């Protein structure tokens, strides 16, 4: 099921967009769930990262769409954002928040359906699996493939990722059980590594993006077997 958020404060456009989505769903045979937010504040507050596409009005009363998109991008780098606007001069700023496109008001169904095809095509081509990382009072949606390794620090786990480091109150044991199917390996008591990012072995360490990570003696043989399997797959 495709999850779409409509962020719009004018009821006439909320009604039009939801009707267009229903029509599109019927024509394309898609399963789509729509969630409506009346302002940028509403979607950014307690944002959980569960949407595939966000249709965002730019001009809203309390929090404008550009500000809301910037906040969402801090938590979710993968969701597709399309602006709904009659102010083209603001829509072209969409590159700043990696917006895919914009829809001009008044919205015409044919143009809307073409842009939806493009958005859903991107979702299908980028079919990835994500991990929701709880950080403080927020959540970061991270592509599992972008996690290099995870380091245990007391009661916390530090995720070293393509987009930076995130600390979360979770145990490596919990993460190991969840990520083992994604080719992660517990190479030492305090480290869980993504084998897809391991570049090699130097002494008793494995190397991931120039970072040396210890491999315990008791797990060295199994680690080497997994590394060889990865090399053969490549």
UniProtKB/TrEMBL annotation:
SMART domains for the chain: LytTR, REC
Which residue range or ranges hold the Response regulatory domain?
3-120
Q: Where does the record place the HTH LytTR-type domain?
A: 131-229
| Stored InterPro entries | CheY-like_superfamily (IPR011006), LytR-like (IPR046947), LytTR_DNA-bd_dom (IPR007492), Sig_transdc_resp-reg_receiver (IPR001789)
Report the residues modified as 4-aspartylphosphate.
57
Q: Tell me the keywords, alphabetical order.
A: Phosphoprotein
Role summary: May play the central regulatory role in sporulation. It may be an element of the effector pathway responsible for the activation of sporulation genes in response to nutritional stress. Spo0A may act in concert with spo0H (a sigma factor) to control the expression of some genes that are critical to the sporulation process.
Please state what the protein is called.
Stage 0 sporulation protein A homolog
């Amino acid at each position: 099921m495709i999850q779409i958020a409509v962020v719009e404060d004018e009821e006439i456009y909320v009604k039009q967009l939801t009707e267009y989505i229903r029509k599109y769903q019927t024509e394309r045979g898609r399963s789509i769930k729509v969630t409506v937010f009346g302002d940028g504040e509403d979607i950014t507050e307690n944002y959980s990262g569960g949407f595939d596409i966000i249709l965002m009005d730019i001009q809203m009363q309390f929090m404008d769409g550009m500000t809301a998109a910037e906040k969402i991008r801090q938590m979710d780098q993968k969701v597709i954002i399309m602006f709904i606007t009659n102010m083209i001069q603001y829509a072209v700023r969409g590159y700043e928040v990696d917006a895919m496109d914009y829809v001009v008001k008044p919205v015409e169904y044919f143009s809307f359906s073409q842009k939806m095809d493009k958005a859903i095509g991107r979702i299908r081509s980028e079919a990835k699996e994500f991990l929701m990382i709880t950080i403080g009072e927020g959540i970061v949606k991270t592509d599992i493939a972008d996690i290099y390794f995870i380091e245990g620090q007391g009661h916390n786990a530090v995720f070293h990722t393509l987009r930076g480091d995130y600390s979360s109150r979770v145990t490596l044991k919990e993460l190991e059980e969840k990520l083992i199917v994604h080719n992660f390996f517990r190479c030492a008591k305090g480290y869980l590594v993504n084998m897809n990012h391991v570049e090699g072995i130097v002494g008793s360490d494995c190397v991931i993006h120039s970072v040396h990570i210890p491999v315990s003696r008791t797990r060295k043989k199994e680690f080497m077997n997994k590394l060889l399997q990865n090399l053969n797959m490549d």
